[in-house]
Amino acid sequence: MRFQHHAAIWRDFPQLVPGVLAVDGVTPSLDAKFEQLLDRGRNRLTGTTESALPEIQAWRKAFAAQGIKPTQYRCASESLLRRLRIEGDLPALHPLVDLGNAVSAAYAIPVAAIDLDRVAGDLEVRYADGTETYETFAGTVEHPDPREVVFADDEGFAHARRWTNRQSGRSAIRPGTSRVLIVAEGLHDTAADDVPRLVEELAAALRAAGADVRATAVLSARQPSFG
Predict the structure, then answer these.
(1) What predicted TM-score, i.e. pTM, was given to this entire model?
(2) pLDDT (tens digit, 9 = 90+) per residue, 111-143?
(3) What residues have CB less than 8 Å from 43, skipping those under 6 apart?
(4) What span, in angstroms and rounded, lies between the C-alpha atoms of 101 and 109?
(5) Euclidean distance between the first and the last CA atom of the chain, given in angstroms as a whole number
């Protein structure tokens, strides 16, 4: 499987910094420890709100540029930090998902975890044409709006809508998941420093938890693909 961002995404968002990890050996018994990461997320919110963070402001601007209301559709890291601020904690879902959410909160950077066995062929972040099929967590089917940024595979399944806003239930991590693609994306001014640190820290945490991190990469317009 090859993962990449379409050339039009690089053209319109040249500040984009994606980090990618390919992980095997993911099971429900994955021993992931992440409380310190959540504490870092909580510390980010001391005396401020998630919407004021530069990492989040960059995504709000990107959403607005696509005609998406940032207060109606939040990027994943903003939603996590908002929940952390209001409730003081994040729900336990699956050890890998919980770890990814904690890392996302710590860095204020969206992190997606995709079950590779549910992806048909290659995966590309691109503008939708409106024919893609998106499955919600409730099992209903939607079609992304034309020009909406999606994670689309070779058979037209959209594995995320509105870029970093909403992942699909089709490729969500579940008890039987064993092969995973993890994608972190930053648009803020220091993303070139922050995303590689996130990838390194997440890879170390996964290895310590017993997972096999097969490969990692930080992509760019000059090296746009992984896999």
Answers:
(1) 0.97
(2) 999 999 999 999 999 999 999 999 999 999 999
(3) none
(4) 10
(5) 6
CB neighbourhood size of 169 (10 A): 15
Q: In the numeric block, which tokens belong to residue 218?
A: 């930080």
Strands 212-218 and 17-24 turn out to be antiparallel
Give the span between the Cα atoms of 211 and 190, in whole angstroms: 29
As a residue count, the chain comes to 227
Q: Select from 209, 202, 139 the least CA-distant residue to 172.
A: 139
**pLDDT tens track for 164-179:** 999 999 999 999 999 9
Q: DSSP for 96-162? A: HHHHHHHHHHHHT--EEEEEGGG--S-EEEEE--S--BEE-TTS-EE-PPTT-EEEEETT-BEEEET
DSSP 8-state secondary structure symbol assigned to residue 13: -
Q: What separation in angstroms does the CA of 164 have from each of 63, 111, 167?
A: 9, 8, 8
